[in-house]
């Protein structure tokens, strides 16, 4: 673990109020810094009573140049998020004071100085807190904060998103895209990285299977469908077609976006002795997402899927462990859903609620059907480890409904048809827009040499996949 001299830490702390005022360590962090996520936190207080925290990402790998660059990006992005939240007057996040995202400073390590959020970390499980009224009080406050965050950070138009792990650069994204298209964009980038052999641990067939599961999880028809009703074919995650048809037309509309904390566990919720929420900390995973994804259940109300274990359990045990919430968690979710709906009614004027994206997406945040399976599919899109784990657990394809009904779908059944069909959809979505003229102008072998030529990378992927599954794709195209 990285250690720092006391004098250097105090020297950095004086950036807040100047060298004439010397702060002192509090909360015993002088000898034992608080660990939160991959941060080490040193808390200090000035004579006037103001309290601040020096946060250092000491638990992130930092040996190679690439790892150091990743740390700098993480610090820069979190500061941008916190500054945005201050600008829109969101009161539940810490206030950034100063920071250094490089290793050229007194500590020789990147750091942030933030206002210290008062209180203690929330303790939350099926046994604590035991009082049901206290649990509902926390759910009520959390619903209020989530609607407030979605409201003050809602945005339409174009925004620049942070890079992800697939060797890509910052990208501009249409905030009006649906959540399905947003996730398919990420999966397709992952597929391209696998084709180029830039990513280990996953294969192309798994990427194509994940494309199919993303569309099933979020119940929106792919662009290749001629009308919304076609998405009903093969959809294993609906109780009946009537319910699907009620949702499809609403979900096919474009969505606004908002900031999502994305790591809202009990450790990142600060409370006082009466369980009043004082603030949310650790915004390092925050990102801008389509509204429906941003309003998902917080991790506090999710099964601990981030602690996936590499066990050899059979499918019923896996489903029971990762997809079926406890009775107490289900009660907490219902309380959260109730208060989220009430906050929505109070926050959005009746005259504008019909056209409000938040009003349309909030009920989806309250849905309980396969919500944990959908969360795992979402995480598999972003996380290579979750992708690997899910693919080797047959994607837990039938989810909660399979467990309750006692029916387990044979994972291999249907994939022979689904994989080449996804090749077709993948190609349709990613290369059709570039046109014949572009393909004639730039030779395929030179597509990496110019920005315009980068468009042809999708043709390269398509040709590779088409050759790999040539016979099956020909059958699918013949059917169409």
From TrEMBL:
Superkingdom of origin: Eukaryota
InterPro entries: AGP_Transferase
PANTHER family: AMINOGLYCOSIDE PHOSPHOTRANSFERASE DOMAIN-CONTAINING PROTEIN, AMINOGLYCOSIDE PHOSPHOTRANSFERASE-RELATED-RELATED
Protein name as annotated: Uncharacterized protein
